[in-house]
Design a protein that fits this description.
The complex is a heterodimer of chains A (325) and B (329). Chain A is an alpha/beta fold and 325 residues long. Chain A has 12 helices and 14 strands. Chain A has a 7-stranded mixed beta sheet with strand order 3-2-4-5-7-6-12, with helices on both faces. A 5-stranded mixed beta sheet of chain A has the order 9-11-10-13-14, with helices on both faces. In chain A, helix 7 links the parallel strand 6 and strand 7. In chain B, strand 2, helix 6 and strand 3 form a beta-alpha-beta unit. The model of chain B has no long low-confidence stretch (mean pLDDT 97). The chains are: A alpha/beta (325), B alpha/beta (329). The complex binds thiamine diphosphate (TPP) and magnesium ion.
């Protein structure tokens, strides 16, 4: 075990995978000499060489397209997109190509690329260094979507991603890259996809979140406990595949559900969670489902503190739900 | 140029003091930017990236306009929507910048075609860096410009670096300007530290564009003296001697020396100019800092011309949370 930040855990996960398997290599902008703008790949070019930690020209389309070709040939590329906000030049490669190779070839051409990207707000990054657009990828059949919220999960999920057989969007909540530390197992450590983490047990209501939103959500749960409301907090960890069993079991126990995400509300991933609960656990609900989310606006710069769900907004929503029914 | 340099210095120090959140310096690129801007007509449309402070100032964007944007206060014409340096001012035909690189390049082509269709004798100018020549949008934009012979100037400031990536790792082409050949129009390399050379080159490109002789790709060779942005540490990827070598060609020094030999500029006048400019900046900063913050729900405006019912509901929710002091401005 080693005490690490989340971004260090990503770094250790990449290093571990590269030591295990010479087919693993990295591509991205500023990832080599510079070690990545967030230092996620710090030291890796030194250890593994410029042939495996590849500084590319400035083209996301080039990065992902090239990674796809490498994957078709059997390598295990991990592509870094500097910010999730800059992934769109590669959107065609991801949505039209990466996600569909296995399917459109009847299984002949599996295409396993991991696309890593820091995402999310709270760093005063304005419109283009803050967005949470995980829903686009969840809505694209053929992509797995993974979002860690602790250092240990970052390493464990990343290693699973790199050894998976399908494309994985690995979204890293950059707001908590360095603000939290935790014990991370050394060596090969893997966390299976499709298993939510029960971050806090409770009986009175369920709070569902992922990524950086785990921080205010857990803080809200502590505040609610002072009022005598015991919240169960679920960290989804992988949106695709989604752990419906843990979600439904929790809602069946508590009868109340608050969903938290920083992405805009309309057609955000919260809508999917709410729909599943409505379809499969409606009669367990004692109160309407509530979403605490970003607003249906682009991500603002100066007023981001009002845009982002906060501990206070979550507590308020939970109290409302707790009172009803 | 002096104003741009002095404002740059001030903003870097304001950022270090935590009084603005972020800053992208232009130091080293003043002659390229100002030389280009001065060769244009105020009606020409600018499609900037985020480093074009010299262009903005030369176009008459004011210190209060810029400083209010850097803070994101109630005086900010963009209403606090964007990070510092990502600004735009319709009155100065300075289109609002974004962060995704290269996106402005085909847009400049479209605006030029629209102006031509309307019969307006203007050109459009797309500003971008060496790294941005690797983007899809660069290639799409230049290709369209060639095919439609749009009255566009592609003004590439090759400052030798795209964050940590040197120009040599961006393309195997010997120059960036020669990429224009492949798209069937003219490309030229200029010394971007030479104000006069930039001015003459842009003037010629503009004349040709308006005469129907098509677009020009101009590669202005410059150097970014400072970090990519205040989040960057250039010591990780480039050497001090390289920076020192380029600093000997500091565009401000070159321009000053030129004015002293060819004109009646003196050290005393130069010092007076710096003092005057620093004073103006200090005063403008004081006013900007005293300007009130934005109204808290203003970030919900301008998503659409008329808000959707969903947005209206969200505004009511936010108003209610603020009124009950659940959350605070
Ligand atoms: C599409 C896209 N990818 C990545 C980035 C992140 N990024 C911001 S600036 C930059 C380097 C740009 O270099 P260049 O075009 O030479 O302009 P300069 O910053 O040197 O003026 C990068 C990679 C971005 N803004 N947009
Ligand atoms: Mg550059």
């Amino acid at each position: 075990m080693t005490e690490l930040t989340l971004v260090q855990a990503v770094n250790r996960g990449l290093a571990e995978a590269m030591r295990q398997d010479p087919d693993v290599l990295l591509l991205g902008e500023d990832i080599g000499t510079n070690g990545g703008v967030f230092r996620a790949t710090e030291g890796l070019q030194k250890e593994f060489g410029a042939e495996r930690v590849i500084d590319t020209p400035l083209s996301e389309c080039g990065i992902v397209g090239t990674a796809i070709g490498m994957a078709l040939y059997g390598l295990k590329p991990v592509a870094e997109i500097q910010f999730l906000d800059f992934i769109y030049p590669a959107f065609d490669q991801i949505v039209s190509e990466l996600s569909k190779f296995r399917y459109r070839s009847g299984g002949q051409y599996p295409c396993h690329v991991v696309v890593r990207a820091p995402y999310g707000g709270g760093i005063r990054g304005g419109l283009y260094h803050s967005q949470s657009t995980e829903a686009f990828f969840c809505h694209t059949a053929g992509l797995k979507v993974v979002i860690p919220s602790t250092p240990a999960d970052a390493k464990g999920l990343l290693l699973t991603a790199i050894h998976d057989e399908d494309p994985v969007m690995f979204l890293e909540p950059k707001r908590i890259y360095r603000s939290i530390t935790g014990e991370v197992p050394d060596g090969d450590y893997r966390i299976p996809f499709g298993k939510a983490r029960v971050a806090r047990e409770g009986t009175d209501l369920t709070l569902v979140a992922y990524g950086a939103m785990m921080v205010p959500t857990l803080a809200a749960a502590e505040r609610l406990a002072q009022d005598g409301l015991q919240a169960e907090v679920l960290d989804l960890r992988t949106l695709v595949p989604l752990d419906e069993a843990t979600l439904l079991a929790s809602v069946e126990k508590t009868g109340r559900l608050v969903i938290v995400h920083e992405a805009a509300r309309t057609a955000g991933f919260g809508a999917e969670i709410a729909a599943i609960v409505a379809e499969k656990a409606l009669y367990s609900l004692k109160a309407p489902i509530v979403r605490v989310t970003g607003y249906d606006t682009p991500f603002p710069y100066a007023l981001e503190h009002l845009y982002l769900p906060s501990e206070e907004r979550i507590v308020e929503a939970a109290r409302g739900v707790g009172r009803t029914g | 140029m002096v104003l741009a340099r002095a404002l740059d210095e001030r903003c870097l120090s304001l950022q270090r003091q935590g009084r603005i959140g972020f800053y992208v310096p232009l130091e080293g690129q003043e002659a390229a930017q100002v030389g280009c801007a001065l060769a244009l007509d105020p009606k020409d449309w600018i499609f900037p990236a985020y480093r074009e402070l010299g262009v903005a100032l030369a176009r008459g964007v004011t210190l209060p306009e810029l400083l209010d944007q850097f803070i994101g206060n109630s005086g900010d014409r963009l209403k606090g929507r964007q990070m510092p340096n990502h600004y735009g001012y319709r009155a100065q035909n300075f289109v609002v910048a974004s962060s995704p690189l290269g996106t402005q390049i085909p847009q400049a082509v479209g605006a030029a075609l629209a102006a031509r269709r309307r019969g307006d004798p203007i050109v459009t100018v797309a500003f971008f860096g060496d790294g941005s020549t690797s983007t899809n949008d660069f290639h799409a934009g230049l290709n369209f410009a060639g095919v439609f012979r749009s009255p566009t100037i592609f003004f590439c400031q090759n400052n030798q670096w795209a964050i940590s990536m040197p120009r040599s790792r961006q393309t195997m082409s010997a120059t960036l300007a020669e990429k224009a050949d492949a798209y069937g129009f003219r490309g030229v390399v200029v010394d971007g530290t030479d104000l006069g050379q930039v001015y003459r080159t842009v003037t010629e490109a503009r004349t040709r564009a308006l005469a129907g002789d098509g677009p020009t790709l101009i590669e202005a060779q410059v150097y970014r003296f400072g970090p990519h942005s205040t989040s960057d540490d250039p010591k990780r990827y480039r050497s001090d001697p390289e920076v020192a070598e380029w600093r000997r060609r500091d565009p401000l020094l070159r321009t000053k020396e030129h004015l002293m030999t060819a004109g009646d500029w003196t050290e005393a006048k130069d010092t007076a100019l710096w003092t005057e400019v620093r004073g103006r900046i200090a005063e403008a900063w004081k006013a900007a800092e005293a300007t009130s913050p934005l109204p808290p729900t203003s970030f919900l405006d301008d998503v659409f011309s008329t808000p959707t019912p969903q947005l209206e509901n969200q505004r009511r929710e936010l108003d209610d949370l603020l009124a009950r002091k659940v959350i605070h401005e």
